[in-house]
Amino acid sequence: MVAKFYLETYGCKLNHADSDIIEGILSKDFKKSGPKDADFFIINSCGVIKKTEAKIMKRMSELKRQKKKIILAGCLPQISDQKNLFSIADGAIGPENLLDIKKVASSVLAGKRTFLLKKDKVDKSRYFKFNEAKRPTKDDVSAIVAISDGCLGNCSYCASKFARGELKSFDAENILEYIRHLAGNGFKEIQLTSQDTAAYGLENGQQSFATLLEKITEIKGNFKIRVGMMNPGSVKQILDDLISAYKNEKVYKYLHLPIQSGDDEILKKMRRPYNTKEIVAMIDKFRESFPDFLFATDIIIGFPGESEKSFTKTLEFVKKIRPHIINITKFSLRPRTEASSFAQIPEQIKSKRAKKLIEISKIIRDKDNRRFVDKTFNVLVVKKGKNNTFIARNESFKAIILKKGIVGSESKAKITGYKTNYLIGSLI
What we know:
Layout: E1 4-9, H1 13-26, E2 31-32, E3 40-45, H2 50-65, E4 69-74, H3 82-86, E5 91-93, H4 101-109, E6 114-116, E7 142-146, E8 148-149, H5 160-164, E9 168-169, H6 172-184, E10 189-193, H7 209-217, E11 224-227, H8 232-246, E12 254-256, H9 264-270, H10 276-289, E13 294-301, H11 308-321, E14 325-330, H12 347-370, E15 376-384, E16 390-393, E17 399-402, E18 410-419, E19 422-427
Parallel strand pairs: 1-2, 1-3, 3-4, 4-5, 5-6, 7-10, 10-11, 12-13, 13-14, 17-19
Antiparallel strand pairs: 8-9, 15-16, 15-18, 16-17, 18-19
């Protein structure tokens, strides 16, 4: 009888791209199933913050009590306490040795605990062949495509470097061929991802992300491209070429630029290679070219050394640059990072500051959303939502909730209202 597996993924889009590869490899010899019928579970983990780690540990403990076999994948095995993790898991692989998943699964099913964690940088675009059977569904027409792994940064708070290491840009032709395959099989939205998409090629001294993006837009087919997170230090090196590539109608006018703080002194302590003046210049250039572009950012609250004055600077900076989406994270100490040795800020202060930033973020979002009411947009219906709704995206990647729609179709929608996190529309 063929053993059955169930795959759970936590964390970033890059983890989800790795999960596609893991699923493709395992599907050759095992059968995908629901959690109830699975003989073994793969937990593709995230170790960015302690809260997520605790959630994963709780889930693994639940599965262990159900006497399920567990293989731990993703970043957590190379970030956190292996003794604690491996006392629960039956096996493990790291982000760099996805091909070992079949070997580990077979070994675990045979009753042998197996932990294979390698640090060799590999070009995962060679593994895209395992995803050839991937097809859009009646509920979702989006596909995630990783273009690199690792990063060039050395942020003082980040533990992902321990798991994903230095930047490794994937082969451009393999990326393009895979996207041709996806577009040819009916995917309508391609989500490019990495730890820093703008850094593509920089480890080889080549500022080549904009060139790659232009080549993707030249692929035949009717699809949209969402560019994933880009670190400001990389964006400032390719800004003009990037904006030029964004002008293609296939590219969503969406910019995820994680600023992390609005205080230059804190940015220095974080080892972020840019300052607030450079951030303003980047945002202004994007707004000049794309007035309605969707600007998303990340901010860490309560980084060690963040005084009330530092935090106030961040609040004022947010009001100035007006991001539509702010992913707010209270600083989470990660083992072995430089910031773990800094004097920490009490949790109650972090929570108080986070609440203030959330309030400002809501004001910015509501004001931004309000101006779209009664306007009409061309939209792509990308997937089914909750309560029999549909999620569509306009050219800026704004989420528009529809009561009616066909996943994968393009239509015109009139905006009739809004909530903080999305617009509400109806097809016309």
